[in-house]
Task: structure prediction
Amino acid sequence: MNSYKDYVKWDRMPTTWCGGCSIGMVFKQLTFTLEQIQMPKERLVVVSGIGCSGRAAGYFDVDSVHTTHGRALPVAEGIKRANPELNVVVFSGDGDLTGIGGNHLIHTSRRDTDLTVICINNEIYGMTGGQMAPTTKRGAVTLTSAAGNAYYPLNLQGLLTSVPRHFYARSSAYRINHLQKCIKEGLGWKGFAFIDVISFCIENNGRRLGYKNGFEMLDKLKADFKINTDPSGPLAANELGIIQNENQKS
Ligand SMILES: Cc1ncc(C[n+]2csc(CCOP(=O)(O)OP(=O)(O)O)c2C)c(N)n1
Ligand SMILES: [Mg+2]
Result:
């Protein structure tokens, strides 16, 4: 029997993540889920890109790769294609996966490669100081949008569900049971499973937006998002849930 603790490299603790950061919360839920399904350690590979979220690869006590910025998906796809027996989990940030790695996201999802992607969507380039990302809300003040972000954020749900066969889940760092369910179903999905985890960054984004601490940001996630257990169409902006389609026809 593996405990969730067996999936963690304890000699690397504490992590580099700031106090009150949501990345550690999601990291922990992933380890809990691995324990629940008794994922064999030798069958699991974790791949990350660069960024605070990307540090996760180094904290899992399984084979892992900390790739260059934006390149987690092609590396993960290579691993999966070389050894289809492996469960390949990509754990990375919104900037990494949807910004610099955005082209890979389009094509890896289109190829329906059997990967489970956990995207820590804190709506910012956190590690580098808080530059606006493709996920940053319109009007949000960031390091690089002092007058408010002039652009629309990327519609991740729309992008990922434009592939006929798809698995897109939106959860949050606050709804931990729902997050575990999404991760579990994503791991069980044969194909490209993308879990968009609405998260936050207090140090390089939240304070600029007027939050005092991580708890206030977590509380905001609680207030803003509701779980839809049986969505009949696309998730509304304030909804968490799973959108999946087995249909392979174009
Ligand atoms: C090719 C390249 N470009 C830019 C950078 C600088 N860089 C490092 S982390 C990062 C942003 C990461 O943002 P995100 O993926 O959202 O992760 P977070 O830190 O928010 O968890 C950037 C732009 C880099 N390391 N390599
Ligand atoms: Mg980010």
In short: Residues 4-245 form a domain with the Rossmann fold fold (CATH 3.40.50.970). Residues 51, 93-95, 122, 124-126, 133 surround magnesium ion (ligand 2) (CB under 6 Å). The mean pLDDT is 97.
